[in-house]
Design goal:
7 helices; mainly alpha; 179 residues; Bromodomain-like; elongated
Length: 179
């Protein structure tokens, strides 16, 4: 019984949750890219970074969570900021896909070649053409939702679940009073 209480107070369950959540997200995009053959755009590649950070933070939560409440609180704050970044990046990308605003990344725009000879222009072109950021990848043909929109929904879900998980661990009830 004591071992279970120590594990719960160490942050191990929350850390394992975040490790699994980050692995799930990165596993899906790996499958979509390498098995389903979907090409990621530059914004898609940026959207993967919060999940990589979530893996690291989850591992730190498991390993360092026993050091006490201040360490767990700091790591919890970093997890929340990481998930907010995931929501922000995917929200930005959804807006680019929907045409609400242009992409802030220069890789998402077609290159502009001027001056020089034809050979110089060819030499300055990328070896592999980039996928435009406003062209959505649809994981399921029957579902008119892009992978970016699915990522936004997943990031919002993770943020909500993390908030509930952290709220339950904080000892503060719904009324804001200590239990």
């Amino acid at each position: 019984m004591r071992d279970r209480a120590v594990a719960a107070s160490s942050g191990a369950p929350a850390g394992v949750f975040w490790i699994l959540a980050g692995t799930w997200a990165l596993g899906w995009v790996w499958w979509a890219q390498h098995v389903a053959g979907m090409a990621p755009c530059a914004l898609c590649l940026w959207e993967r970074w919060p999940y990589r950070a979530l893996l690291v933070l989850g591992a730190l939560f498991v390993v360092l969570g026993r050091l006490g409440r201040p360490v767990r609180m700091a790591l919890s704050a970093l997890v929340v900021l990481t998930l907010l970044a995931a929501v922000g990046l995917s929200g930005l990308h959804v807006g680019v896909e929907q045409g609400w605003w242009p992409s802030p990344l220069p890789e998402c725009a077609a290159p502009h070649f001027s001056g020089g000879t034809f050979a110089q222009r060819l030499a300055s072109m990328p070896l592999r053409p980039a996928k435009p950021c406003d062209a959505p990848n649809r994981l399921f043909a029957f579902l008119p939702v892009s992978m970016t929109t699915l990522d936004l929904l997943y990031a919002i879900l993770l943020l909500g679940l993390s908030a509930m998980l952290l709220r339950g661990r904080s000892g503060v009830g719904r009324t804001g009073r200590m239990r």
